[in-house]
Amino acid sequence: MHVPVRWEGVYPALLTPFTADDQLDLPLFEANLRAQLDAGMHGFIIGGSLGEASTLEPDEKIALLKSALAVCDGKVPVLLNIAEQSTKQAIKRAQEAEANGADGLMVLPPMRYPADARETVAFFTAVAEATSLPIMIYNNPYDYKIMTTVAMFEELAKYDNIQAVKESTRDLTNITRMRNAFGDRFKLLGGVDTLALEAILLGCDGWVGGLVDAFPQETMAIYDLAKAGQVSEALDIYRWFMPLLELDIHPKLVQYIKLAATATGIGSEHVRAPRLPLIGTEREQVLNVINSALAKRPVLV
């Protein structure tokens, strides 16, 4: 029985912990997941960019999915990310996710090929027609070089299971464009940590977070305060959080956020090659950001 996906609230893009010998560290994955649940998360995304999707084997993604479903036990929805090079593989991964109990999908445009508008719409359409699961489209032209425009969403709006957008264009105006064009037809979730509060105040329904993997309670506090209209209180925490949130917009966001999660006791530094753990001056600089924030960590009411 699938858990309904409301597309509201905070959805961590979960890290994928590894052991020192490059196996999935499911006990640590589950410990992080429980810390997120304890903080009140509204849903989870497995195998995203932050989850090192490009290096995971299909069976590893399913293992993570099953682990998360067991821990969540129907309390909140669990989504699997679909990021593939071919339409055929994207369809296969989506159908495997549905068969193994996923509650929804986040779908990226084609990987490694800069598809044009017609091709991108055809790709999303093919996935939507191949599954009954609700879908959130990840709109991130900054990193993936494909912009899903308002005109493209007009074509996709006829598919009932395409329900939400992870808004990562880094153009806050696009939130208003989408609202003006579609009203509430698509749920919008801010996907850039350094623009998260702004996105919520401009009308986003939720936040797909990165630093939430290390700081779940602070992330939830910002979201809850902003939605309650307590903007000044949210802003106080957000300003404290910003040096940490900036770790999310670096090419080494995986290493940086894993280091932060290690510092807060719910992660490890192990990554999968070609990524390598941080060393030397770079590691010291990131640790300084993390430790400086920890020294001034706000007391949440």
TrEMBL record:
Keywords in alphabetical order: Lyase
Ligase keyword on record: no
GO MF annotation terms: 4-hydroxy-tetrahydrodipicolinate synthase activity
Pfam families referenced in this protein's UniProt entry, alphabetically: DHDPS
Domain of life: Bacteria
Family annotation (InterPro entries): Aldolase_TIM, DapA-like
Residues involved in pyruvate binding: V208
Active site: Y138 (proton donor/acceptor), K166 (schiff-base intermediate with substrate)
Similarity annotation: Belongs to the DapA family.
Name the record gives this protein: Dihydrodipicolinate synthase family protein
Organism: Spirosoma rhododendri
